[in-house]
């Protein structure tokens, strides 16, 4: 027994063991498959950017042409590197000529395999070196400017206009924010391409584009110099372009990415095979770039009851942890998610929230846990809402959370205004300052309500994980074991973008990332693979 809650370490070990087997089982399946998004990401990392005359992104044009020619199973890198060698062109020039119709990639005479691998390795090393340089920039700025204390104060901007987002992001930094997240335009996760350039129109948020990333990063750097601390930038690495957005974020020095292994499956009905393949490559990129990921377990409690479904949040945290570890992501970059979502009218609900938060902290001691505010039970009563957010903030500082996404008292009515954000930051700063070391002074009654609740949730999570281990994650998702949402392994959006790797498949960036992250290769075969299909 250890920690304030005296959780049973044997139960925690059982949970991790089951989650590790679940993740390994999935990894052996997805290791034999690729997606159009992974292949577009390879091209972006090689420097392919821009659009054709019709405004279609060049990575999409090249991948679509290779699909038409039935050549994508060899990997986009095979053909683009081959053409680069043959014609003495850069990968971007190859893509431009392909888009113009003057170059047919699959008709180019094939170079020797050794030459192809050597050039691919050179391009991969160059692309990853550029990402490593951006990571060093972050580290140097933090060393020079310093940063806010944990829990980091995390706020969102969502105007739809990148230039207005910059104004609001800078304002938030001046008010005390440590992380500014730019909410994506509604529906972007279901678009199978990344828009190009700056955007000034969006619904409920702003489109995630590389140029928007660059502009926002520049704006927050300016604000950081002004306030004397580093301001982190967050965006959304999820949906049908998950690995592409990870690559763009890495190249533009984003610091935090929403990057859940299961969110797109459960809440956007994206095909489970597509999502699980894409998340693996995206997390390798995030891991190498030093980007903190945030997972989305908080969303489970918007579709399921926070009291009855608490164990599913913990089970998903264990699964997300293992997928992240397999991708080379250290614990210090795992912002595993959970939320303060009990019904405020529930007697002793605060004690259950405290139990859940403390339990997560003790089980994942090195993770910068991302704690989400009350949303499901927020109403138009802004005074009650402000108190709910204050209680959420108290739990955050009491249990040592890593990232505190601040609640806004008006969020049940409209997109919060700048002054609403200011009040939320003042609320959190007041409580965090006045209760900074309260957690050091608090102990829980042995066998009391908080301890019993935490143990109950852990025990149920262990039982659930071992059941998922026995049937496989794909079957568990089909049965609706997570978030009370059922999904089909051959349904959902994006399955047509999944394909089997050919014998000559080549992805130089995965090879180089695995080498730099110290990862081994993947095993073949899986106990639960039957029934997987690709188009």
From TrEMBL:
It holds the Pfam family Lys-AminoMut_A. Gene3D superfamilies: D-Lysine 5,6-aminomutase alpha subunit (3.20.20.440). Residues 5-509 form the D-Lysine 5,6-aminomutase alpha subunit domain. One of its GO terms (molecular function) is cobalamin binding. InterPro entries: Cbl-dep_enz_cat, Lys-AminoMut_A, Lys-AminoMut_asu_sf. It comes from the Bacteria. This is Beta-lysine 5,6-aminomutase alpha subunit /D-lysine 5,6-aminomutase alpha subunit. It comes from Melghirimyces profundicolus.
